[in-house]
Input
Amino acid sequence: MEDLNGKKDQILANNLSNFHDEYTIVGRIGERVAATVRIGEQSKNGFSVFHNHDSIGKKIREINSVLKSFLDLQFSWAFPSSLSLGKVVGFNERHKSTLRELASRGWFLSDSMNIGTIREILQLLGDANVSGAEALVESHLEESLDKIEKSLINRFGQYDAQIKEAFQLHIEKHFNGSVGLFIILSEGIGRNILKVSPLSRKDKNLDKLRIWLAEHSEDKDIFTWYWSLILEPLPINASKLDGFVAPLNRHEVIHGFSINHGTHRDSLKALSWLTYVASFALC
Output
């Protein structure tokens, strides 16, 4: 039975990998259709095909719904072969503690990661190889700089100039500048999404974050616990840094208390935090 379940898991993983490619294509088609609809609506003469643009809009919403369902599934990191609620909860609870360990070191999963990368990170964490998981996240971010930059600009175009400058500073190895700008961007983008600072540890702001999470994620959402990491003390926003390994802290950087953060690794940590904050737009 274990061999059979193992084969089922492998088949599921392979199917998910194929789904990732297919839905990426569908998503691009959906974006183009949406853009075409907007152009048609803005045209003075209009086109007869857009007389029924409500139905096209419905199709786009259906596509978006499918994409969201897929994203939820992707971030569940491949269910166990038996999809009982108990096994799903237990499966994710095991990863909750390991990813909390990763977050306590300043690293987060990114929506730019594919399922294979996520599974490898989880495997390393499950084997208590935290340094290996850190290195994998770090290498992924460095290899995906262009992809991440374009994604951030596409979603948060109002920060276009700052995003481009932050990535350019990183590429040119001006890490003191890139660290500060990535952190500043996380504040601006976070406020834009959450309507409150993602870096604040004040009780009133944490309450606002709890309310936002309750309104934007459902109890049945298997990924909700990962969003809720933002409510916990993290090295980026903790007032006390005892117990954290090589912490990168917003207060220490922005207020000039830190003089050793101008490193390649800390720049990627700041970017990792930024991608985590930006991922709340997916809720």
Notes: Residues 90-282 form one domain. Residues 1-5, 11-52, 69-89 have pLDDT under 50 and may be disordered.
